[in-house]
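Q: Fold this one first, please.
A: Sequence and structure below.
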Amino acid sequence: MRRPPRVIVAGGGIGGLTAAAELAAHGAEVTLLERGAELGGKLRQVTFAGRPIDVGPTVLTMRWVFEQIFTDLGTRLAEEVRLRQSEILARHAWTDGSRLDLYADLERSTAAIADFAGAREAKAFRAFVAQAAKISAAAERTFILLPSPTLREMGRATGLAGMRDFVALDGLRSMARALSGHFADERLRQLFGRYATYYGSSPYAAPATLNLIAHVELAGVWLVDGGMANLARALARLATARGATLRTGVEVGELIVRGGRVAGVRLADEELDADAVVFNGDVAALGAGALGPAARGSVRPTSVAERSLSALTLATLAPTSGLTLAPHNVFFWRTDYAREFHDIFARGRLPEEPTVYIRAQDRDGKHAGGPERLFLIINAPARGDVAPFGDVEVHACLERAFSLLERCGLRVDRQPEREELTTPNDFARFFPHTGGAIYGRATHSMWAPLQRTGARTRLPGLYLASGSGHPGAGVPMAALGGRQAAAALLTDFGLTGLSAPTGMHGGTSTR
């Protein structure tokens, strides 16, 4: 009787946990190794006064991804994680005093935009949303659900119909140019242009394809009871229940390669044999040789110029007054929005006028008053390894950020003893060889997604499950990456494969 493959998953983020759970459920002998003390990767939490604050991804979209994963693992998402849909997608404020809430309900958002910017802009919003839906459906069929991000794979999966999808992707112009064609109001161009940053990119360089994010958000933004880290904990429980072994505090030093393929991993004090390794880390780390010379040539290297955004973040427990926060909030300057991205990508410095995002975790329900859990995110360049930021420039940027909040009507009574600051320097230490880039490569052309590494690498037996690989960044996309890595491995070892994922539009990876 043929023995099941021995698989090591290196990294316990969402992609690694998904791959481990699905591989174990389909008969593989799985050991997951995580160098940190906790599982979850970027889904981290800090605690002040016994109250946990999410300090990683804050938005859960594409719920269908996790519905399918949990169903395939023999359970239901609703039985493992408590989710509530956010009524308000985000509250937006500008320094001129204007404010706009967008809602999960299209009619409410349309009415809000009409009150905010007039009937013409409300009509433009409807047209924009309709186009975003078409882009999203085309992207699922031609890219997101495919195992490999190549033109050949896209053509094989979609055939002649794929040509229509390729046109529908709207990849030949930038997001900013497309938004200028929709909206006359600069504030709306700022608001929707910011969606490029969810993919670590600039709206002035990213293809208009990324406007699909507007449709994804309208399809639902979900709040996770207990914080986003509970999603990782649920996947860890399922992986263990299906037979996977999960070990923390263990770092993989390098791959062992014999006969031109992966044969195991070398740790600090032992070697583990394996028939395959799933790497749940940044592609840039592989290309830089983080797992040894054999892994270095398994993927295309990532240059410093190709890096996505990093971030300056601040978790705090503090009282607020003035503007009433929603669960998700964005604060803008009423000036030249392009300047922020010129500062970051062209000049490599912290922005002079940073946009500020705030996750107000205690606003998921009715806030009882008093200090509340806040997580602030400011976009920053990923230069933490080549030109680390000094304390003076970091704190100057923070002062500008809090000045913006006050000008928008929000006052935060900062409590220094209840703050945790994370800079690109810190992210560079957390994720070596990235400079602090959070999203892998920036998506600054229509071809950039096709340069992401798929589930299979050039080294036989080495698979990739990472938000920096295919299909891309974000919690659901990283989970899809883990799922695709598991499916590729199962196919290569002749095990019963996973069913093809079905997207929110009802499409599948093949036709």
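Q: Good. Now the second chain.
A: Here it is, same layout.
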Amino acid sequence: MPVVRHALIGVAEVAGLSALLTKDVEIAVTEACTNAVLHAYGNGAGVIDVAAWLGERQLVVVVRDHGRGVSAPSNNRDGLGLGIPLMEGLANQVTIREPEDGGTEVRLTFLRETDPTPA
């Protein structure tokens, strides 16, 4: 996850995002990745895909695993239920879906700040 964090901080710097928004992105994406690590593959290894893109008014980050999916039972559910509200508090929009080919996709959308115009 440190690689993902560093990459996102680089994207945020290039995009000129505020330090506060950059921190929100870092925390929310780390939480999405942590959920995938803890819940997607049980005790086995697996892949987590992370993609980010900048729009004119938003930064979108997608975290995807190819594991058991959100609705599948898990033996490791300690703390489950805190991560999603945290992500929802930090991002402007959070969408969680189970793609047809399996796994879980978390899409986090952050509205980019605009510089205030002088009066």
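Q: Anything worth noting on the second one?
A: The beta strands are 48-54, 58-65, 93-97, 104-111.
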